[in-house]
């Protein structure tokens, strides 16, 4: 399937595109990530077009972004279009709400609501919308076009797609990823669904476990470069991560930096200690051991791959 997701900034289209990717397993491409560099400069037309054409040559994809100049080209290649046509006020609220939040669809973090960007959203119905509507009208007989007038409509669409698609196994997700080699599939202890969701949102980038369980079971410690598929509580594949760093540390010497990377609660060291003290106390009880602050942990950092 080849899918376009278009509409005003702040309408929720990128969020929708991410959820669509997670449900379908289709590769997702953000046009903003092609056009913008981390230093806030932009690429030239030739470089942008070359990257876009490489994506369009693929057998399946989701492309998020408007970029009116190349929309006819993308429409000619697409099979389905999701168009977000929301009120300007809703788009302004959406754009403002994400300021200060790390996003995967932009190579930097917005720290303020840029006035030119605000004006672009305000003028979108006048400058962009008529042209988009004409292009969609021209291809309505050959493309499957879905128009959303609210975020609630988009959410209901995702719910329907999810119900039809069902969840993927670890094997299916690994196959779709295009990666090769070995991987481990596992679920977090404690709150597997909540923690897996934090990983999928790229909030949780670290975890830890008691070293004694590796020793008891004769298991090797994880190594940097290894891949894992994170599962939910029902064994469904949620996402793929790659380990970037592994080290051992006493419980009472775990750093505030590691606690923050674990992404839980308010991300403070105090919160981390409270939650993990309770968790390890219960876990150790299953093997007849008592918890103490000198417990050795295996601390692992990772990056989200898909």
**Largest beta-sheet details:** 5 strands, parallel
Name the strands of the widest sheet in spatial order.
2-3-1-4-5
Query: Average pLDDT, to the nearest integer?
Result: 93
CATH architecture annotation name of the largest domain = 3-Layer(aba) Sandwich
Number of strands: 10
Shape: elongated
Rg over alpha carbons: 22 Å
Share in β-strands: 15-25%
Structural category:
alpha/beta
- How many domains, as an integer? 2
By CATH, the topology of the largest domain is Rossmann fold
Note the run of SSEs as H and E: EHEHHEHEHHHEHHEHEHEEHHE
Measured as a percent range, the helix fraction is 40-55%
Walkthrough of the structure:
The chain has helices at 13-24, 31-35, 45-56, 71-77, 88-97, 115-127, 129-138, 151-165, 170-177, 192-200, 211-217, 256-262, 269-285; strands spanning 2-7, 28-30, 61-64, 80-84, 144-148, 184-186, 206-210, 227-231, 237-250, 296-304. The chain is an alpha/beta fold and 306 residues long. The protein has 2 domains: 2-166, Rossmann fold; 171-304, Roll (Sulfate adenylyltransferase), CATH 3.10.400.10. The strands form 2 sheets. Strands 2-3-1-4-5 form a 5-stranded parallel beta sheet, with helices on both faces. The chain has a 5-stranded mixed beta sheet with strand order 6-8-9-10-7. Strand 8 and strand 9 form a beta hairpin. The longest helix is centred in the last third of the chain and has 17 residues, at 269-285.
Task: Please describe the topology of this protein.
Layout: E1 2-7, H1 13-24, E2 28-30, H2 31-35, H3 45-56, E3 61-64, H4 71-77, E4 80-84, H5 88-97, H6 115-127, H7 129-138, E5 144-148, H8 151-165, H9 170-177, E6 184-186, H10 192-200, E7 206-210, H11 211-217, E8 227-231, E9 237-250, H12 256-262, H13 269-285, E10 296-304
Parallel strand pairs: 1-3, 1-4, 2-3, 4-5, 6-8
Antiparallel strand pairs: 7-10, 8-9, 9-10
Helix pairs in contact: 1-8, 5-6, 12-13
């Amino acid at each position: 399937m080849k899918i376009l997701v278009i509409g005003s900034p702040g309408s929720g289209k990128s969020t929708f595109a991410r959820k669509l990717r997670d449900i379908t397993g289709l590769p997702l491409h953000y046009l903003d990530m092609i056009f913008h560099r981390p230093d806030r400069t932009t690429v030239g037309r030739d470089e942008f077009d070359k990257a876009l054409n490489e994506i369009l040559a693929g057998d399946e994809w989701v492309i998020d972004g408007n970029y009116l100049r190349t929309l006819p080209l993308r429409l000619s290649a697409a099979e389905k279009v999701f168009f977000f046509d929301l009120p300007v006020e809703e788009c302004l609220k959406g754009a403002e709400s994400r300021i200060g939040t790390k996003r995967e669809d932009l190579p930097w973090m917005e720290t303020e609501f840029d006035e030119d960007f605000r004006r672009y959203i305000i003028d979108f119905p006048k400058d962009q919308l008529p042209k988009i509507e004409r292009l969609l009208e021209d291809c309505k007989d050959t493309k499957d076009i879905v128009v959303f007038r609210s975020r609630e409509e988009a959410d209901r669409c995702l719910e329907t797609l999810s119900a039809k698609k069902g969840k993927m196994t670890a094997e299916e997700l690994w196959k779709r990823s295009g990666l090769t080699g070995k991987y481990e599939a596992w679920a977090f202890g404690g709150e597997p669904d909540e923690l897996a969701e934090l990983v999928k949102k790229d909030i949780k980038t670290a975890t830890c476990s008691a070293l004694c369980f590796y020793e008891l079971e004769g298991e090797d410690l994880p190594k940097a470069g290894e891949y894992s598929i994170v599962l939910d509580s029902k064994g469904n594949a949620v996402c793929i991560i790659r380990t970037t760093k592994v080290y051992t540390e006493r419980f009472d010497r775990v750093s505030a930096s590691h606690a923050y990377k674990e992404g839980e609660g308010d991300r403070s060291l105090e919160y981390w200690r409270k939650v993990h003290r309770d968790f390890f106390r219960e876990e150790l009880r299953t093997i007849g051991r008592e918890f103490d602050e000198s417990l050795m942990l295996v601390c692992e950092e990772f990056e989200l791959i898909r």
